[in-house]
Amino acid sequence: MARSLDVILVVDLESTCWKGSPPREQTSEIIEIGLCTVDLGTLTRTEKRSYLVKPVQSEISDFCTELTTLTPDMFADAGTLADAGKILKKEYRSKDRLWASWGDYDRRQFERVCKDLSVGYPFGPSHLNVKSLFAAATGIGHEVGLDGAYKQLGLELKGTHHRSDDDAWNIAQILCRLLKTMRIGGNA
User: Fold this and answer.
1) Of 16, 28, 47, 128, which has the highest C-beta tally within 10 A?
2) Per residue in 161-172, pLDDT tens?
3) Is residue 183 very low, low, confident or very high in pLDDT (cuts 50, 70, 90)?
4) Cα dist from 79 to 19, 76, 142, 172, whole Å
5) In the chain, how long is the greatest CA-to-CA distance?
6) CA–CA distance from 28 to each of 2, 40, 68, 83 (Å)?
7) What whole-number distance in Å separates Cα of residue 173 and Cα of residue 157?
């Protein structure tokens, strides 16, 4: 359980990807961690960050660059996944706080890549799937993508879709909106 419920860490990942299957001897790995903090007292987004992670088991494909705008040269000075994990644990107390993402992909990808690279998992056991929460709260009967949720709410995505800091910021807006409606007397 989360020991501290003052802040929710909203996380979004970008990973190496290809059109079709990965090339031989390459595997999808985390290349960007986006983070947006949500203050649970005020239900506001308070910070937006991006951490680039240098890939070690794959290369950034042209398809990946088209999708994310991330180019191989952007990773010349990027840290490792272990470096990013240390920042999450030290600066954001990620082991003690609830963290959230749009769906379970980010949680599963973090678990898999940390295991593959023998890197400590930077989060505690408390994860909130905002995609499922949105589907349940709105009664639509199925999960939708982030862009679909924004359309349903009549909102416009901010920033660049498939850049993790912008996606985390947008996910956090939906989360704040849902939590406000759940509070007594709250309005979305």
Assistant:
1) 16
2) 999 999 999 999
3) confident
4) 26, 9, 37, 25
5) 55
6) 29, 33, 14, 19
7) 10
